[in-house]
Design goal:
The protein is built from 13 helices and twelve strands. By secondary structure, the protein is of the alpha/beta class.
């Protein structure tokens, strides 16, 4: 008997008008049919709600107002839980899904009993029959200073047969999680709002003793645009620090502080010609509020209750190299990365807790 799957898509303002039609059509062609689509209208207006209802009447449309992406996913999962779904799939709307996308995700998570999450193979979308298909993500890489990068980005697609363990975290573009695992590790942290929410969930799942896998036959084509991501630098900067303060043990935090300080200086200097100095400072000022640290301490206590894995086991696969795939910065390439990589090699050997 097939397990029921809840697929959560999040709309933001005119996002659906740009992307939903092709996404919807590919969902209707899925070989695995026991699923319900939940579209969370995450800055809902009468116009957007009406449009969603008209264009995808089979989906369950849920209104939200504030635009919080993490909260939107929680809202969708809550409704899927009420409908007794066994699995929850988080997926982007700017996608086209292969007809076996969902079936392969379900097959993979049922094969791997230790799986916390299973990610699809994410390819860069192209119109028509493009034989030179490029990879968007084969799983995401986690840097020890809180950055996240896609694995395999820009490389030519290749055939992968076996289910491979992802040493970093599952991309929020398309992954599946069971109701049981979600109950154990807890819901999305709504403080993150958007960006690094997938890194945060993956880190949490690993500390709770679960593994993360790639389902290479579950294929999704992503209409990825680098420019859309860099508009949200405030959340990217703020949330990488949040994840560090939430999940590293105190001793590990002390060890990485010198590297964190040097990287911080570099980011501030780089933000001036990049014209996002004010954004960078706003992210930093967030951590000057006592309420922020109250919430961080509270979260750390919750994490310690589910923690089964020590830092040394998790950080072995963290990268020491910053991989901004779309940015070719010589200072980063020839100075910062060699220094950070060497520093991290030494630190990893010291961590025994």
């Amino acid at each position: 008997m097939n397990k029921k799957v809840g697929i959560i898509l999040v709309n933001y303002k005119d996002y659906a008008r740009k992307f939903l039609t092709e996404c919807r059509d590919s969902l209707k062609l899925q070989s695995y049919s026991d699923f319900i689509v939940y579209i969370v209208d995450n800055a809902s207006s009468d116009d957007s709600f009406k449009y969603l209802s008209e264009i995808y009447g089979e989906a369950k449309i849920i209104k939200r107002k504030d635009g919080n992406y993490a909260a939107a996913n929680n809202t969708g999962i809550k409704r899927a839980r009420e409908d007794v779904c066994d699995y929850f799939v988080i997926a982007n709307m700017d996608t086209r899904f292969d007809k076996n996308w969902l079936g392969e995700l379900v097959k993979a998570i049922e094969m791997k009993k230790d799986a916390g999450m299973v990610q699809s193979k994410v390819l860069i979308y192209s119109k028509g029959e493009d034989k030179d298909v490029k990879i968007n993500s084969l799983g995401n890489i986690q840097h020890f200073l809180g950055f996240g990068f896609t694995s395999g980005y820009g490389k030519k697609d290749k055939n992968i047969e076996e289910l491979k363990e992802i040493k970093g975290y599952a991309s929020g573009c398309s992954f599946i999680i069971s109701r049981e695992v979600f109950d154990k590790i807890g819901e999305y942290d709504e403080e993150y709002w958007m960006y690094h929410d997938d890194l945060e969930m993956g880190w949490r799942a690993r500390l709770a003793g679960f593994k993360i896998y790639l389902a290479p036959k579950s294929i999704v084509y992503h209409k990825y645009e680098f420019g859309r991501s860099i508009k949200m630098l405030y959340y990217m900067e703020r949330n990488r620090y949040l994840s560090i303060f939430h999940y590293y043990s105190l001793l590990t935090l002390i060890l990485i502080l010198p590297a964190l300080f040097i990287m911080e200086l570099g980011m501030i200097v780089y933000s001036v010609p990049g014209k996002w100095f004010k954004t960078k400072m706003r992210a930093n000022f967030y951590f000057l509020k006592p309420s922020t640290w109250f919430k961080i301490i509270k979260k750390r206590k919750r994490i310690n209750k589910i923690r089964k894995i020590k830092d040394r086991e998790v950080v072995q696969f963290f990268s020491g190299k910053v991989l901004f795939q779309e940015i070719d910065n010589p200072v980063l390439k020839y100075i910062a990365n060699p220094v950070l990589s060497l520093y991290w090699v030494i630190v990893k050997k010291i961590i025994f807790w």
